[in-house]
């Protein structure tokens, strides 16, 4: 595969962009080698600057649930741009967007738009603190909730990939209020509440985790958190930046049948434009300015191009529920195929999967939290990543990331992926 233009661009990028990338997860630092520079994408395929084609399992880290350059979204953005790209004043489209989200997502009385998942989680946490009058909160090791200071403690995604134990610049004053324990460990959560009686504002969780590979909540875990929060007067925040509008029209709340007090969105809600959102029960959301004193704002919040992209995509998803059934079938098919070739290879493995989120861990034990994800053979994953890339399949460049399926994937694409996995395993095991 010729990647000479990518290599040239990466050399050039490093003299003006830190590490040559605008987000660290794009670097191939942990898998080795240099990142591929992309030129365009359509449906399930990415095209790099050298003209190579890849089947995409990153999908911009989640947003492109219907594949790239989905025609109605592209057309809506083009049309909307003619009316100006930003007003900084209210528009009808924002009302329509809020109403559409409310019609799909459970437990959202009021919703505020922001411009990223980071902003959504940061604002939801501030609101939970403002509402309860408590400072501490619980997050789970290996979960990632964006790069706001409070969340960069035992975080997943790039923080785990690059093995950053403490993030310089995050003060002890801030991180002391971040309590952590293992995902799926309800007893540890109870213990933290017992040790910090009346001090914990919220639990924030990825209800299906995607930032330490894909990790599923064990039976009763999220239900248990719901019970504990209710008993302790703390809020349950679902970070649905990955799972929202992906695992079901109503996200993980619908899929797991557990109610959150606050929920954050990103990725799919913006169809690839910079969008995040947080919402929840009216009495909590009414504490946000201008109704309340919990201040939160944004020059570009509710931006018309971002809103029209998200609105068009969500409306399409709402009108076509079969998309979710078909995504489910694609996920099941891929899982079965990967299972077959992995078993044949003789290497120990675990596949974690729900709907259109999936990941392969080269592990001989179940992967249920960050420690078990970290003790898998991630050096083998790194080889697998490159072997797949060489065969035209673009996986996340880290074992600590979920793969995302798009609805644009065809049977042929899935078969090609399974064949590539079979050949890759023969090469690397
Ligand atoms: N929460 C979760 C669960 C995420 O996966 C991410 C991003 N991968 C974020 C929050 C942060 O979103 P953003 O990158 O848009 O700030």
Automatic annotation (TrEMBL):
<dbReference type="GO" id="GO:0008483">
    <property type="term" value="F:transaminase activity"/>
</dbReference>
<keyword id="KW-0663">Pyridoxal phosphate</keyword>
<dbReference type="InterPro" id="IPR015421">
    <property type="entry name" value="PyrdxlP-dep_Trfase_major"/>
</dbReference>
<keyword id="KW-0627">Porphyrin biosynthesis</keyword>
<dbReference type="GO" id="GO:0042286">
    <property type="term" value="F:glutamate-1-semialdehyde 2,1-aminomutase activity"/>
</dbReference>
<dbReference type="GO" id="GO:0006782">
    <property type="term" value="P:protoporphyrinogen IX biosynthetic process"/>
</dbReference>
<dbReference type="Pfam" id="PF00202">
    <property type="entry name" value="Aminotran_3"/>
</dbReference>
<dbReference type="InterPro" id="IPR015422">
    <property type="entry name" value="PyrdxlP-dep_Trfase_small"/>
</dbReference>
<comment type="similarity">
    <text>Belongs to the class-III pyridoxal-phosphate-dependent aminotransferase family. HemL subfamily.</text>
</comment>
<protein>
    <recommendedName>
        <fullName>Glutamate-1-semialdehyde 2,1-aminomutase</fullName>
        <ecNumber>5.4.3.8</ecNumber>
    </recommendedName>
</protein>
<keyword id="KW-0413">Isomerase</keyword>
<dbReference type="GO" id="GO:0005737">
    <property type="term" value="C:cytoplasm"/>
</dbReference>
<comment type="pathway">
    <text>Porphyrin-containing compound metabolism; protoporphyrin-IX biosynthesis; 5-aminolevulinate from L-glutamyl-tRNA(Glu): step 2/2.</text>
</comment>
<dbReference type="InterPro" id="IPR005814">
    <property type="entry name" value="Aminotrans_3"/>
</dbReference>
<dbReference type="InterPro" id="IPR015424">
    <property type="entry name" value="PyrdxlP-dep_Trfase"/>
</dbReference>
<feature type="modified residue" description="N6-(pyridoxal phosphate)lysine">
    <location>
        <position position="267"/>
    </location>
</feature>
<keyword id="KW-0963">Cytoplasm</keyword>
<comment type="subunit">
    <text>Homodimer.</text>
</comment>
<dbReference type="InterPro" id="IPR049704">
    <property type="entry name" value="Aminotrans_3_PPA_site"/>
</dbReference>
<dbReference type="InterPro" id="IPR004639">
    <property type="entry name" value="4pyrrol_synth_GluAld_NH2Trfase"/>
</dbReference>
<dbReference type="GO" id="GO:0030170">
    <property type="term" value="F:pyridoxal phosphate binding"/>
</dbReference>
């Amino acid at each position: 595969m010729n990647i000479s233009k990518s290599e040239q661009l990466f050399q050039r990028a490093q003299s003006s962009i830190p590490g040559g990338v605008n987000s660290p997860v794009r670097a191939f630092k942990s898998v080795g080698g240099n990142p591929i520079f992309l030129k365009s994408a359509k449906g399930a395929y990415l095209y790099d600057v050298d003209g190579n084609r890849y089947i995409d399992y990153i999908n911009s880290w989640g947003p492109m649930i219907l594949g790239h350059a989905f025609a109605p979204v592209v057309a809506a953005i083009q049309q909307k741009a003619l009316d100006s790209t930003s007003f900084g004043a209210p528009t009808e489209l924002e009302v329509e967007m809020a109403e559409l989200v409310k019609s799909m997502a459970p437990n959202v009385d009021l919703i505020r738009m922001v411009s990223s998942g980071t902003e959504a989680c940061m604002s939801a946490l501030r609101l939970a603190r403002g509402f309860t009058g408590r400072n501490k909160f619980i997050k789970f090791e290996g979960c990632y909730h964006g790069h706001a200071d409070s969340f960069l403690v035992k975080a997943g995604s790039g923080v785990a990939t690059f093995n950053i134990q403490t993030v310089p610049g995050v003060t002890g004053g801030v991180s002391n209020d971040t309590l952590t324990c293992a995902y799926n460990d309800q007893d540890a959560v109870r213990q933290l509440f017992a040790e910090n009686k009346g001090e914990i504002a919220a639990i924030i969780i990825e209800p299906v985790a995607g930032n330490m590979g894909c990790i599923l909540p064990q039976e009763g875990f999220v239900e248990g958190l719901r019970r504990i929060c209710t008993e302790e007067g703390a809020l349950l925040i679902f970070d649905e930046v990955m799972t929202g509008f992906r695992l079901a029209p109503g996200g993980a709340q619908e899929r797991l049948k557990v109610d959150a007090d606050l929920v954050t969105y990103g990725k799919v809600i913006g169809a690839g434009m910079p969008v995040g959102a947080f919402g929840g029960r009216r009495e909590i959301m009414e504490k946000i300015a201008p109704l309340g004193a919990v201040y939160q704002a944004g020059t570009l919040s509710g931006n018309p191009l971002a809103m029209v992209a998200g609105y068009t995509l969500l409306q399409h998803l709402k009108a076509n529920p079969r998309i979710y059934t078909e995504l489910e079938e694609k996920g099941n098919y891929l899982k079965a195929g990967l299972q077959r070739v992995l078993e044949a290879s003789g290497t120990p493995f675990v596949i974690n999967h729900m709907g259109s989120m999936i990941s392969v861990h080269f592990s001989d034990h179940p992967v249920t939290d960050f420690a078990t994800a970290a003790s898998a053979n991630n050096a083998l994953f790194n080889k697998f990543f490159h072997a797949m890339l060489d065969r035209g399949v673009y996986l996340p460049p880290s074992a600590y990331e979920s793969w995302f399926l798009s609805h644009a994937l065809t049977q042929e694409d899935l078969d090609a992926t399974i064949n590539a996995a079979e050949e890759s395993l023969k090469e690397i095991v």
